[in-house]
Write a structure and sequence with these properties.
Oligomer: single chain
Strand content: under 5%
Low-confidence stretches: none
Number of strands: 0
Distance between the termini: 43 Å
Structural class: mainly alpha
Radius of gyration: 17 Å
Shape: globular
Number of domains: 1
Length: 183
Amino acid sequence: MMGWTQYFIADTLNLLWLALSLFIAGVIEALLWKTSLFQLLNIPIKTEWFGVNKKWRGLISLPIAMVASVNLLNLVELLIPALSQQSISFSNFNLIEFGLLVGFIFNLSELPNSFIKRRLDIPPGDENSKLFYFIDHMDSTYGVLILWYFYFHFPLHFIATGLIVTPLLFMGATELRKKLGLK
């Protein structure tokens, strides 16, 4: 039987693998946004509720990008069999279902936080408050953790590890995307 530190390490490695799919999807999404189709969707969902930065293109592009990303990583798992030996492998899922749901829930989970911030007159993208910077990186990841637990039945120890690790991973990915000019 594994101790909590072994679970934490194994779960963190699995989270890194799953987070890589979101990072790759974020890069694909940035490329999709440059296309004429997604320029048509570059309109706010409802400015008075969520501000100008929450747009239809995000709700549509990230699920599509996630499908591409998880298929790419599933191919990597096939080429490097040791990767598919993890407790959580993309080969365990219907990749279209997994990609669409994770991409949609990731962006949908940002909306309540944006709604609250607009009520508090906090400008979109404001990173001055450390609390809201953390919450901005917690909302999407916690939404996905809820999806993984209730819909995909990921183990509770994995979700508990995710509560700690995923906001940190997302903050690191955000900073990397900024440095790469993708955000």
